[in-house]
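User: Please run a holo structure prediction.
Assistant: Happy to. Please share the sequence and the ligand.
User: Here you go; the ligand is inosine 5'-triphosphate.
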Amino acid sequence: MNNDENTVYFVTGNKFKFQEVSEIFKDKNMKYDLKQRDIKTTEIQAHSLREVALFKLNSVKNSIDGSFFIEDAGFFIDSPLKGFPGVYSSYVLKTIGNEGILKLIDDFELSKAHFSAIIAFYHKFIDKILFFEGNVEGRVSNTIRGKGGFGFDPIFIPNILPDKTFAELSAEEKNKISHRGQAFTKLLDYLEKK
Ligand code: ITT
């Protein structure tokens, strides 16, 4: 197994997530390589993304020889759903999907939603776990729109670009403002200083 000091692994089964961070990574001149490891992590049902992220990280810590990170993300409909689906995002996407979510919303103009992402990074060489977070605020679209991105992207309209869903943005546009883009950029800033 590779234990190169200059390789950082992203443990995820989600190829879209890996593509997004790779786009950001390739524009930086880092001394590290970034590689995907698709190892099954354990996702517990907890109240916060941070708890889920920490458990997820520890569930694969013994399987990886080197520094690595995992990411836990969630889609929170603050109004009218009081944060649902949040930590239940994967389950809700698999069961009722975006169509089902739209049926739960009565006034789209008044809806409020956000994406959050927590990266938990295990820095092998100092034997420490560090967290990096990103959030993006917006609302729910009244229709499913756009072909880009994945997951809830076709129903999320960020406040900062109020005419488009995330799925109607280019990968670069989404990365500039997204929860994942923010969290990953913080991780890269940290690694740049090491
Ligand atoms: P991992 O292997 O990295 O855990 P996952 O797809 O299980 O990948 P999460 O648990 O972090 O990812 O995400 C919870 C759900 O939220 C999941 O259904 C994703 O599709 C969705 N999601 C996460 N980030 C998203 C984004 O940027 N845009 C749209 N949906 C997203």
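The beta strands are 7-11, 33-37, 67-79, 84-86, 112-123, 128-140, 156-158.
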